[in-house]
Each structure stands twice: as structure tokens, then as C-alpha cells.
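call fold(seq) -> C-alpha cells
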Amino acid sequence: MKTGLSRRTFLQAAAAGVAIRISLLPSATRAELIETPPHPGADWLEAGGKPKYRLDAIAKVTGGKTFTRDYRARDLAGWPKEQAHAFMLHATRVDRVFDGVDLSLLGEDLKPDRLVLHEDLVADGVAIPAPGFYGDVFFVPKGQTARLLGQPVALLIYHDFARYDAAKRKLRFNDKVVRYGTEGPSTTPGPYGAARYVRIDGGTPEAEDRYSALKDTTIRTGFKGEEPQWPAAGDGDAMARGMAAAAEIEREIATAGDDVLVLRRSFTSQSADASAMEADNGNVWYERATGILHALIATQSPHEVAEMAAHMVSKSTFPLKSIDLKIGYTVGYGTKDHAIFPFYCVLAGLYAEGRPVRLANDRYEQFQTALKRHAFQMDKVMVIDRKTGKFRAMTGRYRNDGGGRENFSVSVGTVGATAAQSIYYLPKSDFSAAILSSRAVDAGSMRGYGTLQTMAATEMMVDEAAEALGLDAMEFRRRNALKSGMKNSQGAIPSGALRHDEILARAEKHPLWAGRRERKAAFEAANPGKKYGVGYGHVHKDYGTGAEAALCALAFDASGRLSLSHVAHEIGTGATTSQAVMAAGILGRQPDETEFGKVRWPQMPLETSDEPYTLSQEEEDRRMANPRWTPSFTSPMSASNSVYYLGHATREAARALVDLAIWPAARSLWSRGIGGGQLAPEAVRREDLRILRGMINAAAMQPLSFAEVAAEAHRLGLVTGVTVHSFNRWQWAEAEFEVPGAGRRRFAIDALAVQYGDGAPAERKALMTEAGWHFVERASVFYPPAQRNNAGVTYYAPMATLAEITVDTGSGEVRLLSHHSILECGTQIVPELVSGQIQGGLAMGIGHALKEYLPLYEDGPGDGTWNWNRYELPTSRDVAVWSQTAEILPPLSETDPPKGMAEVVMIAVVPAIVNAVAHAIGKRFYSLPITPEKIREALA
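ret:
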């Protein structure tokens, strides 16, 4: 669950007249960004609804796919053609105060056309957006120490590229440019937060919990130094009772007898860089005369960027009437979600004296400033009944290093704690997270989001526990795996069927596992000096944030031409392709026109404080009486949310269009003629309706084309367009609407706008006042209770991986021979996209297990000298590219929804490799990555 950002200050600015417009790149370049043509071709879908190619496929294979980084002002319609450029200088020390910059090395010819310092922002009233989340200052103030290594101290703007490039080259790696004075006090903020999730069941998995976060509360507290000061145990309020439950678990561990195994281990997981091929960048043009801020910025969260940019200048000397933010393709693995870099781009634009200015990290700067994966320190205890081989309890103390800005660190820490149980049922559990600050480069959202660290450690420990108990590792997992209807460590029942037993059964029979002992003996006999091992990892990863919101519009004209608009935009996952496929799967035909990345929805005049995690139940009850209020307007592209959450809006819009238009229009056509036509002799029900390959049929009725039905819907004046807004808090919001001509309808959405067909009566058409739409105020609404935030998660996708490795006992090198993965993700919308995610995720996990590492502090990336010459990424040789396989469990039925799986695919391979190394050499490792040096030391 991600912590919410208050946008009250932004709303005040918006009320003062700041208009926000967010769009795809203009038509002149859109074809390169989205596709040529920028919508599905006429023969895009094959029989069965399978797309022939991604929407961006042709652009990709012809070299025409462009990213935000590829654009300059001359490429953007309406922008001036002269392009300015900017770069920043960074602090590489935090122990001495910043004393200014020395640009004498540049001489007169290379001096910047504009130098921007902290004091300039103060004088002009430019504020840091979301104070706390993004720190307290953009640039280090003179006379103060830097908050974190790599923090910018100044922005240099050049009106031409040649001087910019020459100046940047001269200043790079020069430690005399940023001047430091005397030693100064640390300005790194204090710890960011702490949370604790305690659960004791009621004696059986089915019984009411004695205590849990969902039933009672999540325990939160402050700090003394870096140590959380948890409340006193007692029988008073919910937190005191939670601490009493935690104390009971500790007593059980302390007094454990010989009938149980008590296993204590400590683990560390390293800081890592996402290494997204597109480094952070943006191009901004500010017109002071008109008050318009034009921007093209690489981001996964465009809505947030526009809102926070408005907040930045709401009380400044820069007049702002409108923000025109354009978005294109990007990729970031989470690190371009709520990152601070876009706001440095905005600063550059404000101070570029009316010129478009480009601020773009090179790879050194990306290592120095981009969001990192959190380093974790983990202390875990497992208590297992020796006779039954079942868990009695598990505890975990997790500390993650968030660096010098908070960002999503609290959320990453708490998500890691809630995931620590992995796939196992725990009668008693106590998981706490302490989220600490430091002088390190700030860490934030990155694929895995804390669960990679905590679940990988659990899986490593599970193998060790099985060995200590004398149990087969698969059998031990089978005895403890969560079954459908069991509760997680927060006391919530996960959604739907849990299929861990099926995955275990398949893995156990796989040749890699079944024949591992024989293969080990044969390999080692034939390869002196090398050891062979097979390891297994089995996890499940939550998807979503607990406050997912989305919008989708579907509409057709009288000829049956179908259009789709959606908030989803492309970050490499194929989300745009899957949304179009989902719409076609319900409506029986592909969209003729598509628009993605749409964030301006005038037909949805919703109001929100955007505080879905912090609003009290009492306050939410009061606000939901307003039929235009919603807890959150829209979500970024993150948290594996596209296919399930953003796709839910697509599916609900399509179903609403079927119910409100296609079904009644088809019935009207079938009823033509004397005595009620061909429909009258049959008992035709809504559930008989079938829509496939553009044809509509039900029972024995004559098949109708989509075009025929569309024409009839328009003739009758039925609903011919729907826009929906959805919201999920680990459960879907639902609402009822009085739709003119259709009566009261209930959908799993919280807002609805409709368009009426050509034949609608004048009074009904007069209702379409919101940009040509009728916003239908809901008659009633159900929002999941605020307490459900404490569920932590209810949606999971499981993944298991078998890894086959060899260890060279001389060099210490670990070589991956092959790996096999088993995934359960419900119904695959586009199997090829799932396959691509599996392959990419596995490569990231392999890198985390064996190669990728960043020191946190002075010798780390904050010093500005890191690049891929020092940071080792896995290559095809390292990931067994030609000997990797995967299988996916078939869906339970044709109604099985898809599951978000883009994050889970990278996690299981990490413990699988570590467990394989233990199988190979009999040594267990508790710190990642496992480098050759660590292997040699262990074998010495």
C-alpha cells in the first residue's frame, strides 16, 4: 500500500485558475510514438481474438519507436525551433557546508546563460512539491550541508548545444567546481516511519482472529534515534492489544521446547539501480506572456507531474494559467513513478527566459540521482513444529534505507513487511518495518517494491528449515502453503482460488527437480573442480496499491465505428495492446480508433482530495454523499496495475455498453415483424447473448452484425457511449445509476457518463452538457471501508522457479545452466506479452542474485563516477537465454480474470539461485549478491 500524497495545496491553485491538459504527442509525431496507423489495422485480430502484433510493433521493428528522450523542440508542433539545454551540478559531500560554485574553469565563453541556485527559488517563491515526500529543498542552500549524496546544488542553462556540451565536459568529475566550507551539521531528515503487523489466529485458519491488522489495527510509532518506540503492551486500545499479542509470540519463542525448531537468521539485500535504457529527461517551454507551461517529460505518473508542477508555482512570481503536458513512450520499472526529476525539468523551463530547454541525464547522472532499489536489513525467526512440519509462528524485523528523500520508502517498507510470509499460512506472525533515512541517493518505487527483499529471504530460510527438519523442501512447502480462504499476515482473505499446491506438484515432477541428485553426481564426476546444484523458489506478489483508480471511454457511431480512450499509456509492458484486446473480447470487434495516456476527462467532473489511505471513515462517509466525489481520480502506470485494475475499467465500460446498447438494440431487431418477430417464440435471456467476431447472437436468433446493431441503437436513441471511473481498495467500489431510458443499473464503478444515440429525444440530448456527455450522478455508492487499508493486499499472482547452476570452486563463478518457471496469472490477455515479462523479469532477478550492487554512501553512485563500466548487469550468457522455459497454469474458467504479474516474475529466481548454490557447495549465503569473492571465501 502506497502512502498518499495530499494535494489540498494543488486544489487551491487549481481553484485559482490553473488548467491542466495532458495529452499524447501531437499528430505529426504520434504515428511514431503509438503506431502507424495509431490504431489497430483492419485485420489486427485473428480468429479467437488474438492480436497479430503489438500496437507499437511496426514502429519497434522498423526503428520508428521513439521515446520522450528522442524529441527536441523542433519536433513539437507550435514550439519554437531553438533548443536550449541544461545540466546540474551535484554535491558529493554531506559533511561540509555548501559554499557556492566556482565556474572560473569555463572562462567567459562557456559561462551559462542562466545559473539557478536555491536562493533564486526562494526569491521567486517556487516551492518544493509535496514537502517531505520530495524532501524540503531542490538545491542545497548556501551555508548548509547537502541532505543526500548527489543532491543538486545548481542548474546551468545554455541557449545553444555547443557551449552546453563543452561546458559539461569541462566540469565533469572536477571536484573543485562545487565549493565546500567548514564542517556542518547533518541536514539528512530523521527516520521516515515504522509499522508493525501482528496476527494471532483463533485456533484454526477459519476462526475469527484473536488479533490482526484488518480486524484491529496496524501498529505505528515514532523513533528514538533510529529505533522505533513501540507502544506499551496492554488491554487498552488496539495498538496496546497488538503489542500484547506480539509479546505473547515473543514469549512462545523464548520458551520453546525441543518439540519445535526455532531458526534465527539475518539477511541483507543490496541497493540496486533499475538501469532503464531511457534515462530521466524532459523538455519544457514556459511562456510568461500567456502563462502556459508546455512540457514533454518521461514519467509513469503524468497526472501527478502536472498537479505538482501547478503546486510548485502556485505562490511564485511566475504566472501560470495552463499546463500542457505531453507524454510518449517511456520505461522505468517504477523509478519514473513519483520521481523528483520532472520537477527539475519544470525549474529549467521557468528560468530558460522563454526558450524550450531540455534537461536530460546522461548515464553518470542517472546513476547519481535516479531512484534506487532499497537496501534491506532483515532479522527473521521461524518457529516450526517438528512433528507436523508446520509453522507455529514467524517474526521479522525489517529495516530499509530510504536515502535522503522519503519518496515511497515508507510504503516499500510496509509492503515488504506484509509480504514476508510469502506463500505460507502462519498461525502467529509479527512483522515490523523501520524505514530509515540516510545520506544515500534516495530510493523509491522499483520492480519488486520491498517484496523481492523479504520474500526472497523467507524462501532461502524455508529451504534451510526443511533441511534441519529432515523434510523434502517441496513437502515442507506443501504442508504450509496457503489454501484458498486462509488469511494472510494482516488477517485478510486473498482474492479467489490459491493454486500453490498445483504449482508445487508441477515443480516436483519437473526433471530438474526429480533428477537433481543423479544429475549432480554425474556432472561432478565428469567436471572436476565444479559443483552442480538445483534450487527452488516459490513466491506470490501482490499487485495494485490499495487505491487504484482508472477511466475508460468506449463509444460507437451509427455505422458501428468503435473508439476507445483510456488513461493507460505505454511503458513497455504492452498495456495499450491489452486494453484494446480486452475491449474487443467483450464487444466482439476491435476498436477502430484508440487514444491512450488520456488524463483530461471533461465528461467526468469528479472531485477528490486524493487521500485514499489517510481519510477517516467518518470523513469518507460524509464526502461520499456528494455524487461527484471519489477517493482518487487516476493511477500512474505502476504496481502491475494495467491488466487487472486499469483493465477493469475497460471491461466494465464494455459490459455497460453491451447492457445499455447492444442487448436492447439486438432485441429490437429480433422483435421486428408481426407478433414480436423471431424473438417471440423463444425464451431468450440476457445470459444467452454471444458476441464474437463482430456478430451478435443469442439462442436461435439470426446473427446480427455489429454495424446493424449500432445503427439500431442510434435509431432508438439508446446509450451509444460510456465513460466509467473505477476505484479499488482491495475490493471494488460499486454504484447504482438511474440511466434515462434504461432504468437503475448497478456497475462495479463509482462514476458514469454516457452519450445518447442520434434518435434520442431532445430532452435526453440536452443532458449531454459535459463536453458532449451526460454525467449521470450516482443514486447510491458502496466504497470499501477505510479499515480495508489494513488488509495490506488481497490480490496475488504466484510464480515458482527452478534454477540449475554450477559453481567453479576455483574462480567462485556461479553459472546458470537452465531455469524453469511456473506462473499463475488467471486468463492471459496476450500470451506473448506475458512471455516477454517473464523473460525480462527473470533477467532482473538473476542480476540481483549474482551481479548487481551499489555501495550506499561515499563510494556509491552519489559521487557521480558510476556507470555500466562499474555496475555489472547480466548479459544473455548469464541468464541461460537459450535454455530457459516457462509454463503457465490454465485459467480456472473463461471468466477467470487476468492477474497483474509484471513484478512477481523477477522474485522467485533469486531464492532459487541462492538455494541452488547451497545444494551445490553446502554453503548458505545471507547477503546478496553472491559474488565470486564470497564463494571463494566460503570455500576457503
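The longest strand covers residues 530-542.
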